[in-house]
Amino acid sequence: MAPLRGAAGRVKPARGLPLPCCVAASIVGVIAYIDVVTMRFRDVPTDADRQQMRRLSAKILPAKLSKNDPRRARGDTHDFRVWRIFQPRRELLPWLDAKQTTVVRVEIAIDWLTATMAEARAIKKWFRWHHLQRWHRHDSVDVIGTSYTGPKHAPRNVTSYADHSKLAGKPCCHVEIRLNRARTLRRLGIRRASDLLALDVAAVAGRMIKLAELNLARLARTLIGAKRRSGTSDDRDRRAAEILLRALGKRHGRGGLSSISPLQDIVDAVGLRRMRYCLTYFNATSLVPTTLSWPTTSTRKSASSRTTRR
Fold first, then answer.
1. Greater confidence, 255 or 261?
2. Cβ distance 201 to 155 under 8 Å?
3. How far apart are CA 115 and CA 281, in angstroms?
């Protein structure tokens, strides 16, 4: 793609901070794919339909009923009209349209491939500390090396952990954008399974994920409501920011925040509107491809042999 040019013909610089050298040098490849898609069938799929779905995906599972579902009173535990399809192949999506199905949940995976697992863990930690989700309403949770920005049934949830890529088989930082509920998917233009073929991953990630750096000195001046006077250093403001963050964290039940706390926790406590002048965003266009990759027969075998962790 040709570089952007201004009115006078000058090349415009890329907006945002460049990625840290330790992150940019560790990533050897980036792939995006549909990890799981949940489909609602009009009728219960037949045995032949299930066999077709198994042949064109890594595996399939019926959706579990919620604890409050009245169908559990008759002993049912699963809804056999709703199926979770893992790593579907491209050929499966038109077939699902012919079966009059509706997409109710999509998990978009983005794998940042690395040479070693140690580099994958380091990138995952950097992502957790600098990641910012727009329209965030739930507390972030970390469970056994996996970070969640919300509960399981939240309309939007971003998950990250270090593991081996399900398609490439290499160590990676695995980031998932989990979109739940048909209304959330319709806003992104996803109604049928075939809509995923033209999905712009970069546009979806741009709406869901931001990577930013926090300016502690500016945050302190924003919270105190004071302007910086000439001749003063930022060290005093940084110390004031640490004290304020600790107090805000205790007020919000987080045990005290600090400058090394994840950015999402700080924004949730302070508020994004008050912090809009304290954040500098990274230029992360190189971290997200614009198109999806689809599994083949060889990648399907390797993916099905690996146990699903999350």
1. 261
2. no
3. 27
